[in-house]
Amino acid sequence: GPAAPPGPPREQPVLEPVLPEEPNGTDSAKAPKVNCEERNTTGIERFTLHILNVSQDLMEFLNPNSSDCTLVLFYTPWCRFSASLAPHFNSLPRAFPTLRFLALDASQHSSLSTRFGTVAVPNILLFQGAKPMARFNHTDRTLETLKDFVFNQTGIEAKSDVAVTKEDWEGPLPSVLTKGIDWLLLFSVLFLATFVLYATLRTESIRWLIPGQEHEHQE
């Protein structure tokens, strides 16, 4: 589709496909597309996701020289689709303890949103090292569909005894909407309105420079 202008991510019921993802099925399950290096879980007692704050850079958490895989969620705290996804994504680290899971507020990391084409939230990317390999592209965002996505992409099976719990609804990713002013969205609307006004005035000034236009207007 046409490229979207730079701006804050918006919420949407359907995730926009940018990276290729083959449909779920037997063929894709037999041939995983990403060969992930599973991390050593010895000594790790609690498997949870890490939420980046505004001063942390995603690239600091992704090792370009390794083959380990990380599932990264782009969300915003005021997006209702992000909130409904939160408890399911919170439970994923327990289902796949050998993988890493990160989440970041897309409104606080706008440069990353532009870089990876995350013009809408929630948006989930599978990274191998520092390279994005696949994008989750399902409207049904549940623990089961997320597990199927990871399995079809990596061939790693999820732990069968993992389910969404009460603690997953509480955090670490918030499942309750945060009310507030979206300053980035407001700035984008003002910028677009200013651009449209400028383009309109510019077109009007050019029309007066065309020979015969002024005479025709006077008549």
Describe this structure in words.
The protein is built from 7 helices and 7 strands. A hairpin with a 2-residue loop joins β6 and β7. The protein has 219 residues and is of the alpha/beta class. The longest helix has 27 residues. The strands form 2 sheets. The protein has a 5-stranded mixed beta sheet, with helices on one face. Strands 1-5 form a two-stranded parallel sheet. The termini are far apart. The radius of gyration is 22 Å and the shape is elongated. It has a domain of 121 residues: Glutaredoxin.
Task: Write the SSE topology.
Blueprint: E1 10-11, H1 26-30, E2 50-52, E3 69-75, H2 80-95, E4 100-105, H3 110-115, E5 120-121, E6 123-128, E7 131-135, H4 143-154, H5 166-170, H6 183-209, H7 213-218
Parallel strand pairs: 1-5, 2-4, 3-4
Antiparallel strand pairs: 3-6, 6-7
Protein name: TXD15 protein
Pfam family, one: Thioredoxin
Transmembrane segments: 183-201
Percentage of residues in strands: 5-15%
Low-confidence region ranges: 11-18, 21-29
CATH architecture of the domain at 50-170: 3-Layer(aba) Sandwich
**What's the shape?**
elongated
CATH topology name of the domain at 50-170: Glutaredoxin
Q: SSE string, helix = H, strand = E?
A: EHEEHEHEEEHHHH
Termini Cα gap? 45 Å
CATH homologous superfamily heading of the domain at 50-170: Glutaredoxin
Mean pLDDT: 79
> What is the count of helical runs?
7
Category by helix and strand content: alpha/beta
The main pleated sheet reads as: 5 strands, mixed
What is the radius of gyration? 22 Å
**What is the spatial order of strands in the main beta sheet?**
2-4-3-6-7
